[in-house]
Amino acid sequence: MVFNTHFALAEDYDLSQSQIDEYQNNGHILLRTVIPESEVAELRTAVLRAHEALKDEEEDFQQAFRITQNLWEINDTVRAHVLSKRYAGIAAKLLGCRDVRIYHDLTFFKEGLGKGKPTPWHQDGHYWPLDTEKCITLWVPLIDCPVDMGPMSFVSGSHLNKNAEHLPISDESDEYIRNLVERENLSVAPAQHMNAGDATFHSCWTYHAAASNTTDRTRIAFAIAYYDADATVPLQPPTNDRRAANLARWFPGAVPGGPAATEKNPAVLSPRD
Questions:
Q1: Bridge-partner residues for 67, per DSSP?
Q2: Cα separation of 95 and 128, whole Å?
Q3: 227: Cα within 13 Å, side-chain hemisphere
Q4: Would you give the end-to-end CA distance of the chain in angstroms?
Q5: What b/e sequence results for 85-111 when a residue is b if at least 16 CB atoms lie within 10 Å of its CB, and e otherwise?
Q6: pLDDT value at position 3?
Q7: What is the pTM of this model?
Q8: Please, is 197 exposed, middle or buried when counting C-beta atoms within 10 Å of its C-beta (0-12, 13-18, 19+)?
Q9: CA 69 vs CA 15, 20, 60, 105, 114: distances in Å
């Protein structure tokens, strides 16, 4: 029997200091060929299979996108990617920390022919129940993703504030951030064409959105959310229901003020703890 050992997933990504500076200044960056070309097709097949297995848990966010979460727990190929030192090494360098832990993974499927509606402007930090600013999401299309398929746009520098923290993803968050952008003359980085395997990394505090998918194909994207391996759970109770639900779901047994480290949150670069 021949085993696929995914050697490419352990290879360092050639990340320059200028790219690290770009991320830390803007709160987002697009990197090419993060997933090695040799691995994309297998991951796409695995993600589709795992998503289908979790279909009963699928969530539809305002018809903008459909998600399932923690595919790595049920599929070995997805697990190899989620625990890849290649991807985690990029995340740790961009954040400036020694190691990162897994928050969770998730799919982002946006239907074609305009059925996948625009994703409202929002800050992910509304949902993150952690006491750290060092949080980041890798978002990767598993098929080529032209601009009219709905890759993401970002507001550069918005990770330095929490002005929209109180709002879940919604028409309200979209209007609020659009008004901020106009009033404060903020810089919007428009969506760019992404090949399968290219990836964006963005802070959980960076304003981001996506247009509708007007192509005739479903946008198939996968994401891995990471955070500083030394992060803790806030001493104070969660400030909204989604944070409370995420704390219970993704950090079982974690205590206020204690490490945000459970069996669901392995550190990726260090020896397994």
A1: 59
A2: 16
A3: 25
A4: 30
A5: ebbbbbbbbbbebebbbbbbbbbbbbb
A6: 41
A7: 0.95
A8: buried
A9: 28, 28, 12, 6, 24
